[in-house]
Specification:
The complex is a heterodimer. In chain A, 37% of the residues lie in helices and 15% in strands. Chain A has a seven-stranded mixed sheet with strand order 2-3-4-11-5-6-7, sandwiched between helices. A three-stranded antiparallel sheet of chain A has the order 9-8-10, with no helix packed on it. Chain A has a two-stranded antiparallel sheet with strand order 1-12. The longest helix of chain B has 18 residues. The two termini of chain B are 24 Å apart. The chains are: A alpha+beta, B alpha+beta.
Amino acid sequence: MANDDSTVKRFPVACVRDQIATCLRSFGMPEADVEITANVMVDADKRGIDTHGISCVPNYFSRWKRKIITLDATYSIVRETPVTALVDAGGGLGYVASVRAMELAIGKTKQNGMATVSVRNSAHYGAAGYYTRMAAREGLVAMAMTNTSGPKVVPTYAAQAQLGTNPIAFTAPAKRHKPFNLDMATSTVAGGKIRNKAVEEQPLPLGWALDKTGQPTTDSATHWDGGLMTPLGGLPELGSHKGYGLGAMVEILSTALSGASVVTRPDHGTRDPGTMNLGHFFLCINPTIYRPDGAFEDTVDELIDDLHATTPADPAQPVMVAGEPEDKIEAERESAGIPVLPGLCGRIKDIADETGADFLLT
Amino acid sequence: MSDGTANEDIKHFPADALRNQIASCLTAWGMPADQVEITANVMVDADKCGIDTHGLSMLTTYDSRRREGIITMDAKVEVVRETPVSALVDAGGGLGYVPSVQATKIAIKKAKEMGMAGIAVCNSNHFGATGYYTRMMAAEGLVGMATTNGSGPRTAPTFGRDAKLSTNPIAFTAPAKRNAPFNLDMATTTVAAGKIRNKANEGLPLPEGWANGPDGRPTSDSSLYFDRAGTQTPLGGTRELGSHKGYGLGAMVEILSAGFSGASLVTHPEHGYRRPGTMDIGHFFLAIDPTAFRPEGAFEETVDELIDALHATTPVDPDQPVMVAGEPENIIRATREETGIPVPPGLRGKIRDIAKNSNAEFFLD
């Protein structure tokens, strides 16, 4: 999430994008792929999803060095019907394959009303909502899901992590409003939030985490001692089995349709050289197969208006709809620039020094 | 899921007794025989697998709705728009079961032909347990998803004080081979409204965190269900525990159910009463054929692999092993085939009154 501490240095969007691009180029990614990847990544930084933009560069650097991603990957369509496709990402980072998969889904949906595109042999693809927003710009409804690099979240009743944060994105176009844009992990909170509490030695709200024996805990220090993340709901009596169920649904749609590696495999992510074999799922529907042109968007606008009109518990905190917090940050960062924390800047500098990439965040 | 009401007053009945009870009431209310059969089968299936909020107990709600004139008991279901991968179904103002079974059958047929299909239903009413329809799809080897909006707002958005969304459930079923299908069927609220209703019917308190009072604070007072004085929480419960995600999922379900079908939004001030003879509730059904992507059987093998791995998870308590979605219901189904279906006294009394007032036979003595 956004870090808007005024002491943090800010950089223009183009500068952050160029920094991402020079790093990727120095890892050996072809120019056309660099262009697409840097654009998707900087979009996350622009929208305040600071966990999914430039901060991912060190991760990708280490995965590249460990040879579990292929930077000059070949994208291919393995199987195709008028409304479906199976895409092989060739072991590359997920961005290029996912943009092309969503473009494929959009094309099929415009022609045939809906489409599902499944991607295998991929890696991290950034913020899931980027791809569903691509479809909304074309007047289409979209869903996107992905599995992840390793287990972090416990099933209900478990003392062992078995699923990733397995995100779901859903975007629906509106007319008067920006698209409704849900982009959520199926865990209670992001891992980074628990880490931040642990660093500051603050207690955790009950339900965020379990200790290594699977007991709910408020002790953030358990983060350093095998602490586990909870599925959305947090506790069994508050419905954690629903968050767990949603996480498993995302795993099924991302891997079982595509043939990608299931995150529960002991050697998941490192099984074959040159690929993590993650899987993604993209679904796209044209609302005009059901209703006259524009009627769907009118309904979405009506819903958003009604939700905005909800009496707030605190007048200072009005009721919002999904996507609005990010839209606000985007508007602000377009002009004020993207804040990059000094620790991250330092890590990017080290990488740039090592690979010979230009360092632009000065 | 089964509620823990006091055991001594609970009587058990064979599934057929409940089905006959449901059928006799629906028939007495003027539903044609072919529709009664479908409806009673779907409803009693919920009772059979422990979804006690969506079977026999719904007769109390349907009785008051039909008396208000917002259900058409002899509704005509009609496909009003169609493509090779989609259909828009008008439920004619009837209960949601018949149009939803029909919509699911259309989804199955089209998905088998084309690889996927999505069916939207408008002008409908309550359709029972969402997972029934996605399990129909899984029984045909398809991956299924289903959503519906609700009869009235019960759930407050994050940061909100008034209820704006219903419990807006989503179901997802994926077929397996060695295991029973993975079958997620969940309200996007912390709990289903029917669970609060069943507590209220039996005069039991609510667990903390299921609902908020009119002041927006947690309450254990189940009578708020009858007074409509409080709100349910979206999954997550509080902003701190991620209620904005449950709220977002609820809004997604509203958009899928009403946006595609053109049904009434639950936020409309007159929702449920905008036109006589219908509540204009909307549903959405999606089916995907895994063989459009992978060789026959490969999808099911991956689902089995995942289920096996999840079963092998180290449990907190060895007596409470890790399960996957759908298994608690499968266990209850097996038990109830032996023991019959438990019907608590409060509900039995209500059904007796309804049967009497409708001139329907009473089967639950």
